[in-house]
């Protein structure tokens, strides 16, 4: 990727990462409690919609998140 250090490329990667974290926080859980078909999140139309939501002129705030992926009580 020849433009990996380009500001616009970095911005788009960061914004896509924020969207991925949002999807993770909203949907990823114990498989017994899933409320969405996880594969549908990777559908080309769904991915295009996420890409279309990225504004090249403005960053969105980081979400609040739900804390660490592994509770401190785990092994």
In words, what does this structure look like?
The chain contains 2 helices and no strands. It has 75 residues and is mostly helical. It has a domain at 7-52. InterPro entries: GGT_lsub, Ntn_hydrolases_N. This is Gamma-glutamyltranspeptidase. It holds the Pfam family G_glu_transpept.
Looking at this protein, list some descriptive labels.
mainly alpha; Ntn_hydrolases_N; Gamma-glutamyltranspeptidase; GGT_lsub; 0% strand; 75 residues; elongated
Helix/strand layout:
Elements: H1 7-27, H2 44-52
Describe the structure in brief.
This protein is mainly alpha-helical and 75 residues long. Helices cover 40% and strands 0% of the residues. The protein has a domain at 7-52.
* Alpha carbon gyration radius: 15 Å
Average predicted local confidence, pLDDT:
84
H/E element sequence: HH
Secondary structure tally: strands: 0
Main sheet attributes: strand count, strand direction, barrel closure: none
First CA to last CA: what distance? 39 Å
Look at the helices and sheets and give the structural class. Answer: mainly alpha
The rough form would be described as: elongated
Helix content: 40-55%
Portion of residues in beta strands equals under 5%
Unreliable runs: none
Number of helices: 2
